Amino acid sequence: MALFAGTFENKVDGKGRVSLPADFRAELPEDAGRFVYVFPSPKDDALEACDKPFLERMAAAIEEAPLFSEEEDDLGASIIAQARKAQIDETGRIVLPKDFMEFADISGKAVFVGRAARFQIWSPDRFEAHAKKARERMRGRTLTLKPKGGGQ
Amino acid sequence: MALFAGTFENKVDGKGRVSLPADFRAELPEDAGRFVYVFPSPKDDALEACDKPFLERMAAAIEEAPLFSEEEDDLGASIIAQARKAQIDETGRIVLPKDFMEFADISGKAVFVGRAARFQIWSPDRFEAHAKKARERMRGRTLTLKPKGGGQ
DNA sequence: TTAAATACCATGATATCCCATAGAAACCCA
DNA sequence: TGGGTTTCTATGGGATATCATGGTATTTAA
């Protein structure tokens, strides 16, 4: 499974073109027509992106409707409905749809944020503010991640 | 599972290159494209590093929180989003990203500290101070460590 | 037939690969 | 067991490939 990690800032040109960070591209299968799915984040003022397997996983979750609340069902449906396929060109760039750029307030530069199976695309300013808040919340929170197989 | 043990000090050259201690390299699987994930420690003023399985376990732990929830967001943002893939070259070196070197105040030399499933990378000075404090805390404290899996 | 979207080159900066070397450790064989 | 030899580790430096980015040409669509 693709594992997107790290944070990268790239330029967005007048055509809405932006390079996908090389580390992210490396996580996508060589063969398959290279593309990612992009959709507005249901929670943040940013865009989310993922590969096909991840979107399929979400779709599968929706199929099992009884297991999920109506809320989750709606959430999944709206994601699928809004998701757009973004082709990755020869030079490793995708084109951000205009309405998506407006939604996320992106112009000039975009920040790519790895989130394991998916990644986000932020306006640099908004990301800065958001990251700051997240750090503050983390401060109070004890880090008790216990990876199986025993961390420290 | 990888088991990193011991403490080693290596040079960091102008390009940010530093040799991974041979003992650490030996813990990484031959086959898989050799690399480690590096990220700023959430606790210390140092860098942490681990192999892919370990990061995947952390990602899995984070995903136990509902997708798009605040908790998932904070944890993901603080670890996955910061982790960067560091390729290990033919001579056994990795490149430390500039911003990471700044964060950990590393230049010239770096100290590798084994921490079982992961390891840390310190500035020699900071590590010295940190180790001293740790020794002081240990004094007067009863050691109660119980190896899991018990009887020999 | 224009505007927009897409595919196709060009380029500087950076990162990666590759070779070279000195020293340390392991080896080995009488 | 000692000396000689080989191997591996850590490190330096230069050559090369890749990345991100800008621009131009060509296709598609309205």
Characterize the structure shown:
Two copies of one chain form a homodimer. In chain A, a hairpin with a 2-residue loop joins strand 7 and strand 8. With 152 residues, chain A is α+β, with helices and mostly antiparallel strands. Helix content of chain A is 35%, strand content 24%. Chain A has helices at residues 22-25, 52-63, 70-82, 98-104, 124-140; strands at 7-11, 17-19, 35-40, 47-50, 84-87, 93-95, 109-115, 118-122. The two termini of chain A are 26 Å apart. Chain A has one domain: Transcriptional regulator MraZ domain (Chemotaxis protein chec). A six-stranded antiparallel sheet of chain A has the order 1-7-8-4-3-5. Chain A contains five helices and eight strands; from the N terminus they run ββαββααββαββα. The mean pLDDT of chain A is 86. The interface between A and B is medium-sized, with 33 and 35 residues. Chain B binds a DNA duplex (30 and 30 nucleotides) through strand 2.
- Alpha-carbon distance between the termini of chain A? 26 Å
Low-confidence segments of chain A, ≥5 residues, pLDDT <50? none
Q: How is the main sheet of chain A built?
A: 6 strands, antiparallel
CATH class of chain A equals Alpha Beta
Helix content of chain A: 25-40%
Order of helices and strands of chain A: EEHEEHHEEHEEH
DSSP summary, beta strand count of chain A: 8
Oligomer: homodimer
Q: Biggest interface: chains and residue counts?
A: A-B, 33 and 35 residues
> What structural class do you assign from the helix and strand content of chain A?
alpha+beta
- Report Rg of chain A: 16 Å
The assigned CATH architecture of chain A is 3-Layer(aba) Sandwich
The averaged pLDDT of chain A comes out at 86
Coarse morphology of chain A: globular
